[in-house]
Amino acid sequence: MVQDVLVIPHGGGPMPILGEPSHTALAEWLKEAASHLAMKPTAIIVVSAHWEESVPTVQSGDHPEMLFDYYGFPDKAYEIKYPAPGAPVLASRVTELMGKAGFAPEADRARGFDHGVFIPLMLMFPAADIPVFQLSMLASLNAAEHVRMGQALQPLREEGVLILGSGMQSFHNMGGFFGRSNFDVGKVSKDFDAWLTGVVTSKNTAWRDGQLAAWAKVAPQARDAHPREEHLLPAMVCAGAAGTDVGEVIFETTLLGTSASVYRFRRVTAGRGRR
Fold it and tell me: What pLDDT is stored for residue 274 in this prediction?
């Protein structure tokens, strides 16, 4: 059995675990997300919107610490613990895979879990008993290169590793979230979400990857939805990791008044359909 690839919105900072009303539906879905996977993951590699490096960099520590990369929240938001073990052996394998794909990867033993990792995983896998590690994005923000990074990760799925993209794929514009925009935020996010869904769920996966690589030119009001694309790029990595597997929407919600969707890529074989 081949593990799924999952793309999730992680919400605003620690809001999903603080009971913030606009995040309640997302938090409740994350609590049941494991039931939507093909199998319990043997490990989880997370591509978070909150880590960029000049080259693909793999978190390789045995027990990553917490990296509280948000500001202005109650004290309890800085007392969170997610003691999942790291995955140094798998990290070495990912470094090798990236090298074979033509990248010049590096490892980082000191990197901690950022909130794009520990916030959703606290809800998805609260026992913290599955090894977790991160792969950085590229500071170049080159969409095609992120698709290619994902393609290099494909063998991990055969080993039961969950490839998890954690961002805010449909809309991430801070001015828009807080009423400082000159456009209809709800409509822009809805239109971008519809475009992204159409691309991700296309059976023409080569076209899908091309559309994602060219997103800034082909998506509706692309730069209104994503003035900077770091919260979209985890989805690019996941699409690459999906290979010829077709995406599907398995959850839809709104976050801070904007549309948001969860996407799953699943290997469908004879006798085993989607569920």
Answer: 54
Mean pLDDT across the chain, nearest whole number?
A: 95
What are the beta bridge partners of residue 259?
254
| 47: β partners | 165
- Report yes or no: 259 and 184 within 8 Å, Cβ to Cβ: no
- For residue 62, give the amino acid letter: D
Tell me: pLDDT of 180 over 90. no
| Residue partners of 217: CB distance under 8 A and separation at least 6 | none
What are residue 45's DSSP bridge partners?
133, 163
Helices (H), the chain: 15-18, 24-32, 88-100, 115-124, 143-152, 154-157, 174-177, 185-200, 205-213, 215-218, 222-225, 233-242
pLDDT in tens, 225-270: 999 999 999 999 999 999 999 999 999 999 988 999 999 999 987 5
Characterize the bridge pairing of strands 161-167 and 5-9.
parallel
Which residues touch 84 (CB under 8 Å, ≥6 apart)?
64, 113, 121, 125, 128, 129, 130, 131, 132
